[in-house]
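Predict the 3D structure for this chain.
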Amino acid sequence: MSVRKSILNVLREYFRLFRLGSLTLDRPTAPKILGSSSQVEKERLPRNARTTSTNFESMLVGFPIDSVPRNFQDAIEAVRALGLRYLWIDALCIIQDSVSDWEAEAARMQDVYGSAHLTIAGTSATSSIDGFVARSNWPWPVVCMPCRGDNSGPGPASVYFRYQPDFSKYSRIEAIDKTVWNTRGWTFQERLLSSRILHFASGRLYWECRGTEGSEENEPARALHDRTPWMATEAEGVQSDTVYPDISGVDNRYQRWYRLVATYSQRELSFRKDVLPALSGLAHAFHHMYTNDDTYVAGLWLHDLMRGLLWMTKDSTKATRTLHRTTDRHCHYNYTATVLEAQTSIDSTDPMGATKGGSIKLLGKYQQLAKVVKAPELRFSARFPFDLISAGGIVGNGSFDVDSETRTDDVWMLQIEVQERGDAFFPYHPVGILLRRVDGGAPVFSRIGFFTLNEEYIGHFGSLETKEIVLV
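Done. Predicted structure below.
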């Protein structure tokens, strides 16, 4: 693995941080423990269960295993049982009160989880004190039966039997995908970046890797693209184009990214400022695999920035900001706006981490709307709940980004593209983004939503002059 500042040595009663210095070690086990992924939870951890700038040196000396939360203890015991020596827990191996250390380590998450021998996921735990090894929630007992081999065997042994459940009720979807662990923003990239994961779910174990997945009950494995649709499989050394042919090719490589971001946007983060840092590891890995000739722009990619701007909330009537991909792989895209310049102001040492601002300069056609009103119940759509009214009537329908819904005044439309769908009834589909002016004089706007034009107003922007516009 890459050289790191510190890691845990668990082969002793008093375990301690181990300063790597210039050493290069065999791949350690990198556990994903729920209590160490939530900063709110970390603030409640015991003093010696978090490494800080004041206790770093004492953590190098050592501390007893029973002084840390149950989740940490379970991870240590699991690593020992597997015959491994080193363990990485972010709450202990990253200096928690050091912004610079957090930024440096967050930028290397793809190395931490991708290079680790194994990731241990305390999937059944809802806090750092729960523990995850106990099997108290499993409704059927394990039956142990002694057996005796032939004369050449090692002697008496035991065979363990357990009831095989109904997978429609006790499946990995219930045991992993619907858990609190799987709702956390930080666990999203950790699950995808790990080369292999051992899930300690409620009452049973699950295995995931880039080649297959398994469970104690021999539950049938899902298709490869249901797990890691864009990463190379370790078993065959091939990329996902072979199992995802509909998105193969250079022009559609970004579709993989949009799918990831749409799923990631459903996760929960304690702090809004973590939105980009918690995605940084995936961005670095994706850039290395698919977009090494492109520039990352705060969650989007410069070469596909026009299409990247066309996201929308899945249901703008809800308070959550779940992103929905508005692009269709069966469409041909004719962009009506052009990117002139894009820049971001990075707020960390990680070029794909937190930002403190940015702007995009475009050349396109835009127009102020006369009015925006809620669509009547007969035509109401959760996806496009607003009628967009210009001088000629209702020119289209739109949805507001969640943070912008309280105001429907001073709304502008910027057409981004015309989608050619091959539909005999509505072959051309103009779409764009809704804006609000930031500067009263200069053409500087912020994005506040998404719109689609009605069929009879396809040429609405045709007579408008193309001008420069800046989005911030």
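The radius of gyration is 26 Å.
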